């Protein structure tokens, strides 16, 4: 530890030492010397206060732990393999540049302004700021002032009787009294107890601020995901309505063929089965859409209600290559990592708080004032009084309380360190998973498109064969069912691809800027 006391011990011929020696040297009592004595007293007292204020600060100073970061993210795309573009990252971009849909931008803006979780997080920051101010105030002396005034009126007869018996003449039945006082108390922070507490409180404030930014990032991610899910439900509802219309036409044709003897009642029943199967999904999708609108409205900080629409799910941006950047940069960008590090700084400072309690605790108290029964002599030097005292206390026996408190603070710091390392490892995992998901969902969507096209061709061929009397309606039923399911699955796959971009953006620490 570094102490000013050691520096003073090594430099005994300082100006302060010479002033003290000259103060106690042989001198003649004159008004000038008394004035110089007061100046010397003030300098010595000021130097002593600075020494006590900026003395030792026990406990370890924080150093960022060494973290083993990979050279590249697993699943990194071409831009990250190229060293010239390795500094670029999707996480550095503003959310307004990532999401191209104007409605999404509008919804995210509303959510950041009105979302309940975001507003709660902002209030927590304000609470942490106030708490840090409370803790910091312990480093400084507290000063209070007060005054009093009393008036006493005695019975005139009692005063006259007293004056007659004592031989006094005149007298006043009103008596006045008053005074003014100021007091001060200061717990000296020679060992850095309160400074370490302030350091911990400021780190907790920083952790709360990063927590608020993590909440903002989560709001951006949640709104984008909820909107994409809503647009997917819209897409599936549109597919279902088109399927119902096509199946109604098919049922009408089947009935006409059955009436003219070219078809059978079994074909009609199978056509009805197809139509009713699609109709069953219609209220389910409508319910899901309205519920999703309600969920999104609450994210926006609004009452449940309808939500505006923008681009179709198929028109959402799908860049072929996404730069993830250098893995070490994520340590400076992800709010949850920076929040975990701020908690680690606070836990490190708490070790100093616990260690400082092993040393004597010192305090100064002072009281000064004036008291008189005559208002015009309130500030007369003869009516002044003052009092000053210093004290210290040192624990002699506490049954291991201080020692175990110190062990506890070190254990908490080690736990917080492990949590910091775990958060970093989880961030690398999130990015790798999101990169893999984005690439694989794109491949799945491309294959699903091919399957849907092939199924649509099979349905057309089956209808031609059925209309020509070359097959039963069962073939039409089977292929039509496959087509409907393929179209719904394609819409879901398009949603997963769009969501994977949002997840990758959040995993890289984007969205809170």
Give a short overview.
This protein has 513 residues and is of the alpha+beta class.
Low-confidence sequence ranges? 4-28
Oligomer: single chain
Globally, the shape reads: elongated
In N-to-C order, the SSE pattern is HHHHHHHEHEHHHEEHH
Percent helix, as a range, is: 55-70%
Distance between the termini: 39 Å
The largest β sheet comes out as: 4 strands, antiparallel
On the 0 to 100 scale, the average pLDDT is 84
Structural class: alpha+beta
Give the strand order, joined by hyphens, for the main sheet.
Answer: 1-2-3-4
What's the number of helices? 13
Strand content: 5-15%
Radius of gyration: 40 Å
Secondary structure: number of strands: 4
Describe this structure as you would to a colleague.
- The model is unreliable at 4-28 (pLDDT under 50).
- Strands 1-2-3-4 form a four-stranded antiparallel β-sheet, with no helix packed on it.
- It contains 13 helices and four strands.
- The chain is elongated.
- Helix 7 (116-136) runs antiparallel to helix 9 (193-259) and helix 9 (193-259) runs antiparallel to helix 11 (335-356).
- It starts with a helix and ends in a 6-residue tail after the last helix.
- It is an alpha+beta fold.
- The protein has helices at residues 4-10, 15-23, 31-53, 78-81, 95-98, 102-114, 116-136, 156-166, 193-259, 265-299, 335-356, 401-467, 473-507; strands at 142-153, 174-188, 361-372, 384-393.
């Amino acid at each position: 530890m570094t102490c000013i006391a050691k520096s003073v011990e090594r430099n005994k011929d300082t100006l302060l030492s010479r002033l003290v020696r000259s103060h106690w040297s042989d001198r003649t009592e004159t008004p000038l010397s008394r004035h110089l004595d007061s100046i010397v007293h003030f300098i010595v007292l000021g130097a002593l206060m600075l020494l006590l204020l900026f003395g030792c600060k026990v406990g370890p100073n924080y150093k960022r732990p060494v973290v083993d970061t990979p050279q590249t993210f697993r699943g990194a795309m071409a831009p990250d393999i190229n060293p010239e573009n390795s500094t670029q990252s999707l996480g550095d971009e503003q959310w307004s540049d990532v999401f191209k849909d104007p409605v999404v931008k509008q919804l995210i803006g509303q959510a950041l302004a009105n979302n309940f979780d975001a507003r709660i997080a902002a209030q927590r920051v304000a609470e942490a700021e106030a708490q840090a101010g409370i803790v910091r105030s312990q480093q400084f002396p507290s000063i209070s002032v007060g005054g009093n005034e009393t008036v006493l009126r005695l019975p005139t007869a009692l005063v006259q009787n007293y004056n007659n018996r004592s031989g006094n003449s005149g007298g006043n039945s009103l008596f006045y009294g008053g005074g003014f006082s100021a007091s001060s108390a200061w717990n000296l922070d020679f060992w850095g107890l309160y400074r370490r507490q302030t350091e911990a409180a400021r780190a907790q404030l920083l952790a709360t601020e990063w927590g608020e930014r993590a909440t903002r990032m989560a709001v951006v991610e949640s709104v984008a995901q909820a909107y994409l899910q809503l647009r997917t439900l819209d897409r599936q509802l549109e597919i279902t309505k088109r399927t119902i219309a096509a199946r109604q036409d098919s049922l009408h044709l089947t009935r006409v063929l059955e009436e003219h003897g070219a078809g059978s009642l079994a074909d009609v029943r199978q056509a009805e089965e197809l139509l009713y199967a699609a109709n069953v999904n219609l209220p389910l999708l409508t319910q899901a859409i309205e519920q999703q609108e309600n969920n999104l409205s609450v994210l926006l900080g609004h009452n449940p209600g309808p939500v505006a629409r923008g681009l179709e799910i198929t028109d959402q941006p799908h860049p072929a290559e996404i730069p993830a950047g250098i893995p070490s940069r994520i340590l400076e960008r992800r709010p949850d990592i920076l929040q975990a590090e701020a908690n680690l700084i606070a836990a490190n400072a708490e070790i100093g708080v616990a260690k400082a309690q092993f040393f004597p605790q010192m305090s100064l108290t002072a009281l000064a004032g004036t008291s008189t029964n005559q208002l015009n002599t309130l500030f007369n030097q003869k009516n002044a009084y003052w009092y000053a005292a210093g004290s210290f206390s040192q624990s002699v026996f506490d049954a291991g309380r201080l020692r175990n408190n110190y062990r506890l603070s070190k254990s908490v710091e080690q736990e917080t360190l492990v949590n910091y390392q775990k958060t970093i490892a989880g961030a690398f995992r999130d990015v790798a998973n999101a990169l893999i998901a984005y690439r694989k969902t794109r491949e799945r969507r491309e294959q699903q498109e091919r399957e849907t096209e092939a199924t649509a061709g099979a349905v057309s061929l089956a209808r031609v064969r059925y209309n020509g009397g070359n097959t039963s309606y069962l073939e039409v039923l089977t292929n039509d069912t496959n087509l409907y399911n393929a179209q719904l699955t394609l819409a879901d796959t398009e949603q997963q691809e769009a969501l994977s971009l949002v997840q990758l953006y959040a995993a890289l620490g984007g969205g809170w800027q």
